[in-house]
Amino acid sequence: MLSSDFLTKFKHATEAKWSEKLIDPALYGFQFQRGTRWNEGLSDETVTEYERVLSVRFPHDFKAFVREMNGTDLATVNVYGSCGEPQRESVGFIRIRETLRP
Length: 102
Fold this sequence. Notes:
- By secondary structure, the protein is an alpha+beta fold.
- Helix content is 36%, strand content 20%.
- It is built from three helices and five strands.
- Strands 1-4-5 form a three-stranded antiparallel sheet, with no helix packed on it. A two-stranded antiparallel sheet has the order 2-3.
- It is elongated, with a radius of gyration of 16 Å.
- It starts with a helix and ends in a 12-residue tail after the last strand.
């Protein structure tokens, strides 16, 4: 099971890496933009409300993760390497909306 201590360390380590890493145009695939940060986590009430609305029970590790951090603040960049396709922004790490209402 994911502990709060592990998730906090993971959050800080990834944000530190993202603060200095640039997009590598030679690598194929999704890359985090420089300066990407995690969004704040969700409250227990919001997680419970999502479970109720979707009629599901989220696994413990998923709930622990979204309570600590909820997606990223910047989109990822999909890099196509040297094939000639231009880079494209895509959704960052998926973020659950904080409210179920429009």
